[in-house]
Amino acid sequence: ARPIVVAAAQMGPIALSETRADCVARLLEMMREAASRGAKLVVFPELALTTFFPRWWFEADQEVDVFFEREMPGPETRILFETAAELGIGFYLGYAELAHTDAGLKRFNTAVLVNDKGAIVGKYRKVHLPGHADHRPERAFQHLEKRYFQPGDLGFPVWETMGGNFGMCICNDRRWPETYRVMALRSVEMVLLGYNTPNDHTGHPEIDGLSNFHNQLAMQAGAYQNATWVVGTAKCGIEEGSPMIGQSMIVAPSGEVVAMASTLGDEVVVARCDLDLCRIYRETFFNFAVHREPAHYGPITAQ
Ligand code: CDT
Fold first, then answer.
1. Is 106 noted as a catalytic residue in this protein?
2. Does 97 participate in catalysis according to the annotation?
3. From the alpha carbon of 52, which atom of ligand 1 is closest?
4. Would you say the ipTM is above 0.85?
5. Alpha-carbon dihedral sign for residues 171, 174, 178, 183
6. Transmembrane segments in this chain: where (predicted)?
7. Half-sphere exposure of residue 127, counting CA atoms within 13 Å on the CB side?
């Protein structure tokens, strides 16, 4: 057995008026709780340092840039890295990234994986951006991820660290089977992900009513069909008038939910996860080398 105790540190709403320091204080408190309950890794939500700003239309770049980090760690976030090293706990943190690249300034919806020594071992930039890029004044809330972010350019890497193979994705990525499968083909054992899922955004009440079901369905199917643990962490509750689902959960490679949050506020859930459980499924039903038939999968990667 290769057990690792893992925590999902769910956040309740972040008000527009909350500062980075306010958010970091909440994250630190949950990191300490996770460590005190034996966790060696804690997963924080998507965009964990600000309110979910894509719900609003901002005309000028400068208005939206206030929600972005120019460096990681930066002055307000460094304490998370130092505390992680002190406590000997790794973490996943989602944030908005303003990146200076060879092709100019780019904005990404990003997560980093930090090891139990406080060092960044991996960075992931959200690939599947939901919503729209145009202003839709008829909507109570926008979902402007397609305006404020560019699609991630780093693919779905898997990192060997802290005794296992870890991958990352962000929110809407969890609904796409390819997300998990690409990482599974790279021997992932635990997929870490944060999310912000408003449950009144589609304009179709019959879909919105199934938000919690679809949240579970996507992560449980992703875990089972790819023989991997999945740790999904929400930012949730009513944030600036927008209701968002909770249900932060830890899912086993069997597809079973082994821990789930029961509130819509700051809450830490912990589970002891045996990474060797992945092997049972990868050596039987999902022995990729023996049972996959990629000759028939061409349309999946066709443009
Ligand atoms: N943050 C994020 O990706 N949220 C989406 C909501 C989509 S509604 C347009 C999600 O898939 O949960």
1. no
2. no
3. 1
4. yes
5. positive
6. none
7. 19
